[in-house]
Design goal:
This protein is an alpha/beta fold. The protein is 29% helix and 19% strand. Bound molecules: S-adenosylmethionine (SAM).
């Protein structure tokens, strides 16, 4: 069973997205287990403070090391073989390859920041730092959700027989997926490519490969 822990100031953020579709099915089937841990529960002062003003001045607040590190230690105690991943725009970019690798681990602990982010010293207590893209979110929770969703669907048994992670973008020799069509054959003047209606499976396969290659070339210069 894949054990997901999230360290967050907003545990309620995850309830609805994990309660539908593939993640819900996987959690219900016991393929994965999810726990959101409230960082504030590890603040020891009277006001349960988790943030403070930055040294050196400037706007915004910084997440304090004491409660965050205590929360990380709690997560490691609960799951000694977990890997703790800090979510930060400064981290390594999350990719399908990362998702595939993570799906083979015993579990992950995702550390979500808020405000201006973490006191830099917290980096000493995590195993990795990951970004979901070159943009800034208000908090790490949407980033954690992206990672959870991408990993859960790769767990053996998470997808039904009619779904396939192999055929998805990046699964197929690192290529983007080919375009898909369904009925009707013509919609407001836009026709389904003739080859898909031809019944010629060899030609369809060749067309799909060509489309996957040309899309990948067009949209991913790298
Ligand atoms: N001051 C930080 C900066 O410019 O790098 C941004 C902090 S952001 C408002 C608050 C939190 O959101 C971060 O600590 C991080 O956990 C999360 N976050 C924002 N963008 C992210 C991204 N692209 N990938 C992963 N986490 C992100």
């Amino acid at each position: 069973m894949f054990h997901i822990q999230v360290l967050t100031l907003f545990p309620e953020f995850f309830a609805s997205p994990l309660n539908c579709s593939i993640p819900k099915r996987a959690l219900d089937a016991g393929l994965a287990i999810f726990e959101a841990i409230q960082i504030r529960d590890f603040a020891r002062d009277r006001h349960r403070k988790v943030d403070d003003a930055p040294y050196g001045g400037g706007p915004g607040m910084v997440m304090k090391p004491e409660p965050v590190v205590a929360a990380i230690r709690h997560a490691r105690k609960q799951q000694p073989d977990t890997r703790v991943i800090m979510l930060t725009p400064a981290g390594r970019r999350f990719t399908q390859n990362e998702a595939r690798e993570m799906s083979g681990w015993p579990g992950i602990t995702l550390l979500c920041g808020r405000y201006e982010g973490f006191d830099e010293r917290i980096c000493h207590y995590v195993d990795d730092q990951i970004s979901v893209g070159d943009f800034v979110l208000s908090g790490g929770e949407p980033a954690a959700l992206c990672i959870i969703d991408a990993v859960i669907r790769l767990l053996p048994g998470a997808l039904g027989s009619h779904e396939s992670a192999e055929q998805d973008s990046f699964g197929h020799e690192g290529l983007l997926d080919w375009p898909h069509y369904t009925r009707p054959a013509e919609f407001e003047g836009h026709r389904v490519p003739d080859v898909l209606l031809s019944g010629n499976h060899k030609a369809i396969e060749a067309w799909r490969r060509e489309q996957a290659h040309s899309r990948t070339r067009q949209r991913h210069e790298d």
